[in-house]
Prior knowledge:
Layout: H1 27-37, E1 40-45, E2 48-53, H2 64-71, E3 90-93, E4 96-99, E5 112-114, H3 124-131, E6 133-134, E7 138-139, H4 147-160, H5 166-172, H6 183-199
Parallel strand pairs: 1-5
Antiparallel strand pairs: 1-2, 3-4, 3-5, 6-7
Amino acid sequence: MPTKFRSKTRVKTAKKPLVKKTSRTPVKKLMAAASAQMEIVQLKVNGRSYEFKVGTDITPSMTLSYVLREKLGYTGLKVACDEGACGACTVLFDGQAILSCLKLAVEAQGHEIVTIEGLPQDDPVITAFAEQCEPGYGTALQCGFCTPGFVMSAKALLNEKPRPTLDEIKEALSGHICRCGCYAGVAQAVRHASEKTAAKGGEL
Ligand code: FES
Ligand code: FES
């Protein structure tokens, strides 16, 4: 049986969490700010720029996860809890893993966002997740609902720390919930992605 990161194996000596759990900016404050000074919001997603008129195309209270999925069609990220508790909505925000359900779209103005659709198909992390099937660890995905979030956090981890220890991998992914319980396989996949990348000279 795979062991859940969130129970016994979870490392309690957290250093810097990779998924930023920023709390939502008060909506009223943002609405005032948005109507006072921001009519157009530009989002940079996966290398493309998108413009939204606040009040017409989007409202100041729309989350980044909602806009990415429902307005732009980046449905790779999932919205499960919608309150920062499961990691399914994780995207890269200026290279760091963030929970897009806790970020307002208007706050993303001028920042670089990468969703799982922005990664190449042969990305080493994606490949490692797909190939993971080792006896004793099992697969890194079953239903796959949680997988995009895990992959994006793994990307952020390996960008910052190309050769993480198993404990560092577990800590970096500890904010993610996998309903199928693939935790051991996920950690092993990230390890393999790191090893493969190192063997190729470190290009992630
Ligand atoms: S949907 Fe964002 S953390 Fe669960
Ligand atoms: S593979 Fe199903 S929730 Fe993780």
